[in-house]
Specification:
The structure holds two protein chains of two kinds.
Chain A lengths: L4 H4 L14 H5 L7 H4 L8 E2 L9 E6 L14 H10 L4 E5 L2 E4 L2 E6 L5 E6 L13 H11 L8 H5 L3 E8 L2 E6 L6 H5 L9 H7 L13 E7 L3 E6 L20 E6 L3 H9 L5 E2 L7 H6 L3 E7 L2 E8 L9 H9 L3 H9 L4 E2 L23 H10 L11 E2 L2 E2 L1 E7 L3 H15 L4 E7 L1 H9 L5 E7 L5 H6 L16 H11 L4 H17 L3 E6 L1 E7 L3 E2 L2 E2 L6 E2 L4 E2 L2
Helix pairs in contact in A: 11-13, 12-14, 17-18
Chain B lengths: L1 H28 L4 H6 L6 H11 L5 H13 L13 H36 L4 H15 L2 H15 L11 H31 L2 H8 L4 H30 L2 H6 L5 H10 L3 H29 L7
Helix pairs in contact in B: 1-13, 5-6, 5-8, 5-10, 5-13, 6-8, 7-8, 8-10, 10-13, 12-13
Classes of the chains: A alpha+beta, B mainly alpha.
Chain lengths: 557, 307
C-alpha cells in the first residue's frame, strides 16, 4: 500500500508552530553544553532523580502542547508519547542508544536478511479493559497502523516497509517486511507502535483517541480536550520492564498531565506548586533556575538530527560544492548559539547529534569557523568581491533564497543571524519568512536555496529522511540530493544488524554528507525538564532525553 | 414588538448561511492542502496523500463538500475534526462553557469598572479624580494583555500564592483571566461613559431638574444616566462578541481551553469542519447579542419602539 520504504518512512516528530507544535517552538531551542554533566546524578544512559518510594498521591505534570489524539498509533505529537508511555507498554524498551530490554515481548529474533522479526510475548498481561494481551492484539495494532482509514502519522512512518504479520501461536508474532529493515527494533520501542486493545478499538471506534486502552501502569481516568489528561494507577500492573526500580503497580495513585502552552505560565505553575514537573523550560530562565534551591533541572541531548540547514543542490549557485562548502566554513556556530539560544548549546559537527547511535566524533575535524577559507572557496568558484560587499559572477549577485517558517521563533532567530554572518563573506541572504502553508508549498516545489530542519529520532536511519534520493523530489530531502552511492550506504546500514558494521556505515554516510556539504549542522538540541526538589522523587528521563517516565515516581523527597 | 422579533430572527437565517458559505470559500482560497498540513513534515508519497485526502473527503467537488456539510449541520451533525477526529459538536461543547464564563465575568467586571470610573470622571470633571480615572483608563487601553496576564500570575500565583496560575473551571480559576481580559473593555467603557455623560449633563433639562431642587444623585441616576447609556450599551454588545472570540491570548497564557484558541488553531491547520462549527456558534452569538442590544434600547429609552 505504500511505495518503497524510502518514501514512506519518517521517524521523527513534527516540528511545530503555534497550536500544533512539538516542543521545539516553545522551548525556544534549549541547548546544553556540558550542562548534562554539571547537573550531577546524570551518569549512565538513564538519568534518575533521587528515589524514595512513597505510595499514593497525585502528580501534576506541565505539558506544552495541545495535541490531536491520545491514540498512540495515530498521533504525530511528542507530547502524546509522553502520556502514552504511561497508558501503553511498547513491545520492547530502548535502555540506551541501540540497546533493548524486554517489554511486552520477552525475547525476539531477527533473520539474517533483517526483513523478518519474531517476538515472543509475555504471558499473563491484560489490557485495562480486562482483555488478555496476545499476539493477535499486536498483529491487530500493526495492521491497523497501515490501514489508510486510520490516517496514522508517526506510527505509519515508524512501521517502515511493513508487509504483514503472522501468528503461529497465541504468544508469538512474526513480522515481515518488504525490504530489510534494521531500524525496526528502535521503532517498536516507540510508544506510537504500542499495542492497543482490539476490543476497545472495536468498542469506541472513531472515539478511541479519547478512550485509549492499553496495558500500561496507568489507565485513563478523564480527558478534557486542550486542558488535562488524568490517569489513575493500574492496580493489576505486574509487567514493568527491568529499566525501572520496582515491580507491581506504580507508586502514584494518579498522574495528571496539564496542557500549559505558554512557557512563562508553565514555569510559574511549577514555582507556585501547582505542577510538580514541567517540560520545555524556557532557556531565558535557565540560569535563574539553576540557582533556585526549590527546583531541580533534568536534561539531556536529543537523539536524531539537530538544528541544521538543508542546501538545495539542484539550484544555481548552491549546485556548486565550493559554494556549499563556503557556507560550512563561514558560520560561527558558537556565536549563533549565543544569539539564537541564549548561549545554551553545543556546536554540531554532523547531521547526526552526538547522542545518536553511530555518531562519528571525527566529523568534528572537518569544518570550523574560518571566513578566510570560505572566501577563498568562493573566489575559486568565480564569485569575486563586488559592490556593496556582495560577491558577483558574470554580473550576478551571490544571493541565496532562505525559506523558513516565520511562526517559529527559533527559525526566525537562526535566519536573521545567518543573514548577518554570511554577509561578512559576501553572500547575500534573501529572507522569506512564511506561514506554515506557504512555506510547505514553496520548499516542496524547490524554490529555496536554504531551509532549516531538525529531527528527533531514536535511530541513525534518520539520514534516510535527509539524504535519500527517493525523498528528494518534494519530500523531506529538501537538499534535493540524489546520489546512488549514498542510497546504497543508507540501504546497507538499514539492513545491517551487526552494530559495529552499522556504525562504520553511518560514519561513511556522515563524512560523505559533510565532504559534499549537503547540509550545514549548527547545534545539537537539548531537552530541559524541571521538577520541585524534595516534592518528587523517582523521575526518570529516558536515554533519548525525550520522555519523562513516571512509573517509579513518588511524591515527597 | 413580537413582529419585530420574528423578522429579526428570520433575518438571522440567511446571515448564518451566508457566513458559513463565505468561511467555507475563504478556507479554500487560503493556500495549503489540509491533508498535507495534517501529514506535516512526515514523509508521504503522493499516493499516501491521495489516500488521506480521500479519507478526509477532500477529493469531492467543492459544492458536494459544502452541501454535505450543510445537510449534516441541519441535522445537528457538524462532522468530525480533521485533526483530532473528534465530533465538532463535542469540540465546541467542551470549550463553550469556559469561554462563556470568562466572557460574562469579564463583561461584568468591565461594566462595573467602566461605569464606576466613567461616572466619577464625568461628575468631577477636570478634578484629580477625573485625571486619575482617565489615567487608569489609558493604562487599560494601552497595556498588552499578554504582559498584564503574566504580571498577575507572577504576583498572585507565584509571590502571594493566592490564586492558581493556570485556569480550568471554577470561580478561583476565573479571577486572574477575568481581570486581564476585562481591563481593555473596562477602559474603553470608562471613556465612553465619561464622554456620553458629559454631553448629557450639559443639556437644559438637567439644569431645569437641578433648578427645581432635585438632589444630585437623583439627577444623575434617574435623569442623566439612562440617556447616556444608549451608546455604551451598543459598545458593550459589540465588546461581548469580541470577548467571546478574542480571548485567545488570555486563554493561551492561562492555559484555559476555550473557543478562541480552538478557532485559531483550526484555521492554521485548515481544519474545515472545526472552523465551520466554531464560526457557526459565534455567528449565532453575535446575532443574538445584537438582538439583545436592540431590544434593550426599547426598555431603556421609551422613545424607541419597534412598531
Amino acid at each position: 500500500m505504500t511505495g518503497p520504504r524510502g518514501e514512506a518512512r519518517r521517524r521523527g516528530q513534527r516540528r511545530g508552530t503555534n497550536g500544533r507544535l512539538t516542543r521545539r517552538t516553545v522551548l525556544g531551542g534549549a541547548f546544553g553544553v556540558a550542562a548534562a554533566v554539571a547537573l550531577g546524578g546524570l551518569a549512565g544512559p538513564i538519568r534518575r532523580a533521587a528515589a524514595a518510594a512513597q505510595n499514593g498521591g497525585e502528580l501534576f505534570y506541565g505539558l506544552t502542547n495541545r495535541f490531536d489524539t491520545l491514540d498512540p498509533n495515530v498521533t504525530t505529537f511528542t507530547d502524546v508519547g509522553r502520556i502514552a508511555y504511561h497508558i501503553f507498554d511498547p513491545l520492547i524498551w530502548e535502555s540506551k542508544a541501540g540497546t533493548f530490554v524486554p517489554g511486552l515481548a520477552e525475547r525476539w529474533e531477527i533473520n539474517a536478511a533483517a526483513d523478518q522479526y519474531t517476538f515472543h510475548l509475555r504471558r499473563g498481561v491484560r489490557f485495562h479493559d480486562g482483555a488478555p494481551f496476545d499476539a493477535e492484539a499486536v498483529k491487530f495494532t500493526f495492521d491497523r497502523i497501515v490501514d489508510p482509514a486510520l490516517k496514522s502519522q508517526s506510527a505509519f512512518s515508524f512501521i517502515g516497509p511493513y508487509a504483514g504479520s503472522t501468528v503461529p501461536d497465541p504468544y508469538t508474532i512474526v513480522v515481515k517486511f518488504k525490504e530489510p529493515y534494521a531500524p525496526f527494533l528502535s521503532s517498536v520501542a516507540q510508544s506510537v507502535m504500542a499495542p492497543v486493545s482490539p476490543a476497545a478499538v472495536k468498542k469506541f471506534g472513531n472515539d478511541f483517541g479519547t478512550h485509549p486502552v492499553g496495558t500500561g501502569p496507568f489507565k485513563l481516568d478523564s480527558y478534557t480536550t486542550d486542558s488535562v489528561v488524568r490517569l489513575v494507577r493500574n492496580p493489576d500492573y505486574r509487567w514493568a520492564p527491568s529499566l525501572f526500580k520496582h515491580q507491581g503497580p506504580p507508586h502514584l495513585e494518579a498522574l495528571s498531565f496539564r496542557i500549559i502552552p505558554e512557557a512563562s505560565t508553565r514555569l510559574a505553575a511549577l514555582r507556585s506548586g501547582e505542577m510538580h514537573v514541567i517540560q520545555d523550560v524556557p532557556t531565558q530562565e535557565y540560569a535563574n533556575l539553576k540557582r533556585d534551591a526549590g527546583v531541580q533541572l533534568l536534561q539531556g541531548e536529543l537523539a536524531g538530527s539537530g538544528w541544521t540547514m538543508m542546501i538545495n543542490v539542484t539550484r544555481t549557485p548552491t549546485d556548486d560544492v565550493r559554494v556549499r562548502q563556503a557556507l560550512e566554513w563561514g558560520v560561527d556556530k558558537a556565536a549563533m548559539i549565543k544569539v539564537a539560544w541564549q548561549g545554551l548549546g553545543t556546536p554540531a559537527s554532523s547531521v547526526l547529534t552526538s547522542a545518536t547511535f553511530g555518531f562519528d566524533p571525527t566529523t568534528r575535524n572537518v569544518y570550523r569557523y574560518d571566513p578566510k577559507k570560505a572566501g577563498a572557496l568562493l573566489d575559486e568558484a568565480g564569485w569575486k568581491a563586488g559592490a556593496g560587499g556582495v560577491r558577483q559572477k558574470d554580473g550576478q549577485d551571490l544571493a541565496l533564497d532562505m525559506y523558513y517558517r516565520a511562526d517559529n521563533t527559533d527559525f526566525t532567530a537562526m535566519a536573521t543571524f545567518l543573514q548577518s554572518v554570511y554577509a561578512q563573506i559576501g553572500i547575500k541572504i534573501e529572507l522569506h519568512g512564511l506561514s506554515q502553508a506557504g512555506y510547505f508549498s514553496a520548499v516542496r516545489a524547490g524554490k529555496h536555496h536554504l531551509q532549516f530542519w531538525w529531527e528527533t529520532d531514536p535511530d541513525p536511519d534518520v539520514v534516510r529522511i535527509l539524504l535519500y534520493s527517493k525523498n528528494a523530489d518534494g519530500g523531506t530531502n529538501r537538499n534535493r540530493y540524489k546520489n546512488a552511492e549514498m542510497d546504497t550506504l543508507i540501504d546497507q546500514a538499514a539492513a545491517t544488524t551487526d552494530s559495529a558494521k552499522r556504525r562504520q556505515l553511518y560514519s561513511k554516510i556522515q563524512m560523505k554528507a559533510l565532504r559534499e556539504a549537503v547540509m550545514v549542522p549548527f547545534a545539537d538540541p537539548l531537552n530541559i525538564f524541571a521538577y520541585r526538589k524534595g516534592k518528587v522523587s523517582g523521575v526518570v528521563l529516558d536515554w533519548s532525553a525525550t520522555n519523562l517516565l513516571l512509573y517509579d515516581a513518588a511524591l515527597g523527597g | 414588538m413580537l413582529k419585530y422579533l420574528r423578522t429579526r430572527l428570520l433575518l438571522a437565517v440567511p446571515t448564518v448561511v451566508l457566513t458559513s458559505a463565505i468561511v467555507f470559500m475563504m478556507l479554500f482560497l487560503i493556500p495549503g492542502d489540509p491533508a498535507s498540513i495534517y501529514i506535516g513534515e512526515q514523509t508521504a508519497t503522493p499516493q499516501r496523500l491521495t489516500e488521506i485526502r480521500h479519507v478526509m473527503g477532500l477529493d469531492r467537488p467543492l459544492y458536494v463538500q459544502y452541501a454535505d456539510f450543510a445537510w449534516k449541520a441541519l441535522h445537528g451533525d457538524l462532522g468530525r475534526s480533521l485533526q483530532t477526529n473528534r465530533p465538532v459538536t463535542a469540540e465546541v461543547a467542551t470549550r463553550f462553557p469556559n469561554t462563556l464564563a470568562l466572557a460574562l465575568a469579564a463583561m461584568a467586571l468591565a461594566a462595573v469598572l467602566g461605569f464606576g470610573l466613567g461616572l466619577v470622571s464625568a461628575l468631577n470633571r477636570n478634578s484629580v479624580f477625573d485625571s486619575l480615572s482617565m489615567m487608569v483608563a489609558l493604562f487599560g487601553v494601552s497595556v498588552p494583555v499578554f504582559w498584564l496576564a503574566l504580571l498577575l500570575i507572577m504576583l498572585f500565583a507565584v509571590r502571594l500564592e493566592w490564586l492558581p496560575a493556570t485556569s480550568q473551571s471554577g470561580l478561583r480559576d476565573l479571577v486572574l483571566p477575568t481581570v486581564s481580559l476585562a481591563l481593555l473593555s473596562a477602559a474603553t467603557l470608562a471613556r465612553l461613559v465619561r464622554s456620553s455623560m458629559l454631553e448629557i449633563l450639559r443639556l437644559d433639562y438637567l439644569t431645569t431638574a437641578r433648578a427645581k431642587g432635585l438632589r444630585g444623585i437623583a439627577v444623575v441616576f434617574r435623569h442623566a444616566l439612562p440617556n447616556a447609556v444608549i451608546p455604551v450599551i451598543t459598545a458593550m454588545g459589540l465588546q461581548f462578541g469580541s470577548l467571546l472570540s478574542g480571548a485567545v491570548i488570555t486563554e493561551t497564557v492561562f492555559a484555559r481551553p476555550g473557543l478562541g484558541k480552538l478557532v485559531v488553531d483550526s484555521i492554521q491547520n485548515k481544519d474545515l469542519p472545526t472552523v465551520q462549527g466554531v464560526v457557526l456558534v459565534l455567528a449565532l452569538i453575535y446575532i443574538g447579542m445584537n438582538l439583545l442590544v436592540d431590544i434593550s434600547y426599547a426598555f431603556i429609552d421609551p422613545r424607541i419602539r419597534f412598531e
